[in-house]
Each structure stands twice: as C-alpha cells, then as structure tokens.
Amino acid sequence: MPVYIRKNVNFTPPSIDNFPLEDDEDYITDPDQLLDRLPQPYRMIDKVLSQWYDEVWQIIEKRENERLEESRRIRAPQYECSAQMESQGRACCVCDSVDGRYIFIGQPRGLSAVDVQTQEKVASWEEESVDIHYVKAYLIGVQVYLVVTIDDMGFARLLIFGGDKFYFVKILNEFQEGGTKLIISKCEASRNGDYLGAMFENPETAEVWLEVYKLPRDAWLNELESVLTKKEEKSEEDQGTDTQAPTDQEAPTPQNEVEPPPAATQEESTGGEKHTPKLSPTSVVMKLKPPPSMSGNPASSIHSACQKVDSGEVIGTGVNHILTPNHKDMRKEVFAHLHDNLMEYLPKEEEAEPLEDVNFHFMTAGRLVPTGLEQQSQIEEEDDMKRLPTTIAVWWKGSTHVVHYSLLKQHKDFDVKPDLVWPYLSPVTSSAISDDTSLLAVGFENGNIIIWDRYLGIQRGIVNIMDRVKIVQLTFLDPNICPQNLDDYQPYRTKTSTYLLALCDNGALYIMMSGPGLELDPICITPPVESEDDIFTMVQPIPGMHDLLITVLKSGKVQIRDTLQGTVLCEPVLPKSHELMTPWDPVVAVGAMGQVLFLKGNNKDYGEEEGGDQSESAGALFMYQMKLFPTLDSYMSRRRDKVSQTVHAKIENRIEALMKERIAQQGLRKHRMQERWGNMKEEIWSILQYKDMAEKKADNRPEIHYKRVRNLSQ
Question: Where is the composition biased (Polar residues) (predicted)?
C-alpha cells in the first residue's frame, strides 16, 4: 500500500520554555481522567454506589436542616396531669355533660357518671356482656340528662341520668327471636332531646336507612319527678322510724336488737333496668332510605313511566323524569360513536360507592321551610329549651343533595316526600349548624362552602377555600368571640356575626367571619401539613371558651391552640409510661366548662393477660386542671357575654331603639343649629358673588353672533 509523504517538511520540536506549567489542582477539573474506566460489572457497581451515596447525603442534609429548624422553633410549654384516675382505666369512651357538672364514661359492662370537681363516681349502670364504645349526653331538664350509648355489638340504648342515678329507657334495635338482627352505627338526638335519629343496617341484605323518633321529654321529666318525690317521702319516713331508739333502762329484747343492714339491691348498686320505673314509650316519626341512583326510570314503557312521575311538587331530586335506562344507554352509544377519536381522553368513570353513612341536623322553624311558622311563639321564643325542632336536614355520604323533611307531618314508612331539596354539582362532604339552628353551613368535595341563614331564608355567601381540597369538618364558633358591628342606619342589631372553622383534608385550618355586610374571606390559621403524623384527628372548641381549640395529632400529641391565630399555647403530656389511646379516635373530654381536661392513656409496657380480660392496669384516665396552666391565664380571666345568634327585632324594640337614639342626639341639636347659622352667612355671600359674576359675564357677551345668525337665515 503506497504511503504519501510530504517533501520539504521540517519537524520543529516544541521549545521547553513553551510548555504550560502544571497546576497542582488540575485534577479537580476532571477527576475521572486520572483513573482508567472500570470494566463491567464493576462499572455498574460503582455507579450504583455513587448514586446511593448522593441520595444518602441528601437525606442527611434534609434531616440536619429539620433539626436546625426544630431547635430554632419556639416550643410550647408542656404540662403534666394533676390527678390520675386508675379506677377508670378501662374507659372506652368519655363525654361531658352539657352544663359541665359530670362526665359519662363508657366501660366494659356498663356506664359510669363521675363528678368533675371531686372525681368521684356518682352512679353507675352495669350489664353483662355490654361494652360501651359510644356515649353522648343531652341536657333535657334541670340536671337531667339523656344519655345515648352504642355498644360493640351495634345495640343502641337510651338512658336518663337524674337524681344521681341512671334510669334505663329502651333498646332501639332490640333483637327478637326469629327476627333479623339489626345494627345501629350512628345515633344522635336534637339539642334538647325532643327528637332522635338512628342509622340502621341490615347485615344480611346490606340495606341502610334512617329512623327518626319523637321522644316524650316532658312526660319523662314528670315521671322522674314523681319517682324522686316518692323516694324522698319514703326516706323521710325511714328517718322518722330510726329516731325512735330504745332507752338505756329497757332490757335488750329480740325486737330491740339492732339488725344488720340489708344487702344492696341491684337497683342501688348497678342501676339495673329491672327496677327502673316504666317510662313513656318513644314513637317513630319517619323512615328514610338513601336516594336512588341516577340510573333512569325503571318503568318498562312510557305510559307506566308517566304514571310513576309525581305531580312535581318537589324539585331537585333528579328522579322525577321519564328517561328510561335504555334511553340513557342509547344516548351513550351515540355519543361514543360520534366522538370515537376523543373517547380515550375522557376521564374514566368511577364506580359509585354505596351510601353507608348519613348526616342529619334537627332544626327549628325558619323561613326556608315554612313548616312551623304558624306558631309565632316558637319563632320569638328566646329560651332555646322551649323551641322545638320542626325540620330535619339529611345528606348521605357521596350524594350531591341536602334534603329537608318536616317533622310535624304524618308520614308512612319509607313513603316520605321532602319539603325542600338543595341540589349541588359537587358531593357534600361536611356540614355544620349553629347552636340555635339559625345558620347552616355545607362543605363540598371541590373546596367550596355555602352558608345559609335559615332564620331569614337567605344565603349569606359562598367561598372557595382551595381548589382540589376536600372540606372534612365545619364548626360554628360562639359569637361572643366575634366583634358585633352595628349597621350605619339601624340603631339595633339585625344579624349576628360569627366565626366558621373549616378543616381540610390536607391538614389546613381556615377561619372566616360571617356577618351583615361582610364578605367570606377565609384566613389560614394553620398551613397544610407535610408529614402524615401532623394530620389532625380531632379539632374541637373548648366548651365555654371557643377562643381555644383542643387538637389531637396522628402522632399522639395533644395541643391547645388559639382559635383566631392558630398558635400552639401549650401541650398536655401524659406520663412517660403511658401513651394516648387510639390517636386516630382519641378518648378526650373537657368538663366544668373548659376548666378540666380528661385524657385516656394506655400503659406502654402492659400486655394482655392469659385470660384475655383487660384489667384496669392497662391504662388510666388522666385529669388536667387547665385553670392552672400559666399560658391560659388571660383566656380564663376573659369576660364572655352571651350573644344570641338569632336576632328577632320586634316593632316595639325597633321603635324603642329609634326613640333612644333620637333622645341621645337631642343634646347635639343646639350645637349643630348654631354651627349651621354661623356657616349660613358665608354660604349666602358665596351665592351672591356667584350671581354677580354670572351677570357680568352676560353683559360682556358680544352681540355679533346673533347678527351673523340673522344674516345667514336671510
């Protein structure tokens, strides 16, 4: 192979002086060139180790930054418990009485009532094989409470606590031989105990429905009063016979010997249901089934479909039509055929979940549902204990409707027509109602919140918290922590301003003020959480002090926060040997109107006994005196005046307020009149000057313009 070499080409070697100087740190620019490339598989191992090293280093940096931020953060003070109630270590659930006198503790084999101030057991109700997992108390009279319980087997019981004793009423879903066992998963009563709603489940057929009961509250109070009166008379007679003691001169005879006291009866020791006086029975008002799915009219023909359609008095349910399922399927096929090339871009239809949960609120008379407005005394009644519910608002989990039913109408089983239906585009996820039921808030899956003023029959506003965020909890706060501003014109209040607390599924807490002439501007008091352990499992205003919140985190921390700012004020902590029982469903109660806090803690080192029976050493109920927390002194001493959420301004009150305003302004009239007469001279002088200037301008106006117009017209 020929090789061509250029001729006359001289090779000049580079000069030694022109060589670049070697840099001692030039290996930093490209360290890979210092080493030869590794062969496989060592090259892959080196790459994996380098990537693993980089990831570990990032984790170390992240943890170090978090540790620095945690060290710089101002930690809330921690307070230990004041007392430990080991006798209540088997408590499964706890609730406080409305007036703060007692706490009711659900336990295996019964229920107990404990005085908040002395922490002593006042009364107990026991029954074998009954494990209470839910308890709720309602004030129905003067120191008389309706107690609703649900055990682990799904049986709901009604009891009345009064006179330091429990009185058994009934089992709502009592099992009868040869019948079907029904389970109750939710049972709630109205605020004053006039009505009660219970959600029934049939495990065999997987059917669910809601039953509403009318409770004879007044009859129960009269019957209990007569029972207590008889017991007082009997005790007085026994005391009278005991005072007739034998004298010292009398010889001891068998008749005069002191007999041993009789054994305690079941009624005195356990408050059993066998010795409970017979109370008036409850009555079923209505039974409600979940709304039907939007599958179409199940009729076989158009004629039968028209017959099933009602008169159209109720609008918004979405089922009052003659569209059959075949017609809907045909329309879907036509749509898919016309847009075949775009069908793959449509979101997939999610299967509808079965409606297994129901939420309901008992409400008094309002202008949204006219039922009950004919009783003017119920509208103008200021005592909430005398105002009876007239309407129930119901919505099922996953549905897009809030349905209102009248409680004063006669209904047949499962044949109830709603009085009002609110259809929405997004599924309802939460709802809340004020204490006097005048305000109703509804939260949705798309982050919207709607507030209705039921008393006036108007909508107060709509607000969007955040897109793609679900509203999981709504709570109306006491209006005494909200500034009440009067209108510019009326000297009397027409509406009451109040705060609404909203909890989102991302852990963010928002607060907004609803009032006359105010826009619903949400304020974020707690930002969205990043860690799953910081998610709130419980957010509850402290009774009697709604400017304080008690929150429980998924990690087990219990915090007391400022409601309007969201800052953590303090943290009640358990002893190191205990941990909070079930942080996802904690056992927490506040008694004495925000003065005492109760927490249930389990022993960390406790193990199940061989017999499987849980002993009292498994945990304890811890008590905290919140009034002794230094960070809460300003809140404890704060004055809170009672503010009524419902403002019923009568014509007499309006005239009286206007006359008071007129009389109050009478003293300022003389000063205003003198000031007016003093300014009148200057005003007249300015008017005369303006008049003279106008006359001078009119005299100096040239007349040639009129002559030109006259010549042009000729």
Answer: 241-256, 294-304
User: Cα–Cα distance between 425 and 578 in angstroms, integer?
Assistant: 47
Token output for 155: 């049986």
CB 620 within 8 A of CB 82: no
Element (H, E) at 71: helix 42-72
- Determine how many CB atoms are found less than 10 A away from the CB of residue 96: 21
Beta bridge partners of 445: none
CA 364 to chain centre: 19
In three-state secondary structure terms, 700 is: coil
Summarised one tens digit per residue, pLDDT across range 506-562 is 999 999 988 766 678 899 999 999 888 899 999 999 998 999 999 999 999 999 999
Measure the CA–CA gap between 442 and 359, rounded to whole angstroms: 11
Give the closest residue to 597 by CA, choosing from 554, 642, 538, 637: 538
Q: How do residues 364-421 score in pLDDT, each as one tens digit?
A: 888 877 665 555 555 555 555 567 898 999 999 988 899 999 888 777 666 788 888 8
Supply 617's token pair.
């050493």
Hey, what are 165's tokens?
A: 């004793």
123 pLDDT more than 90: yes
* Coil, strand or helix at 304: helix
DSSP reduced 3-state for 27: helix
Write out the E strands in 389-517: 391-396, 401-406, 420-423, 428-433, 439-444, 448-453, 458-464, 471-476, 498-504, 509-514
Query: Are the C-beta atoms of residues 425 and 445 closer than 8 Å to each other?
Result: no
Specify the 3-state DSSP secondary structure of 342: helix
Strand partners, 600: 621
Q: Of 618, 621, 477, 573, nearest to 116 (Cα)? A: 621
- CA 220 to CA 539: how far, in whole Å? 34
The residue whose two tokens read 């927390």 is 629
CA nearest to 424, candidates 450, 405, 404, 406: 450
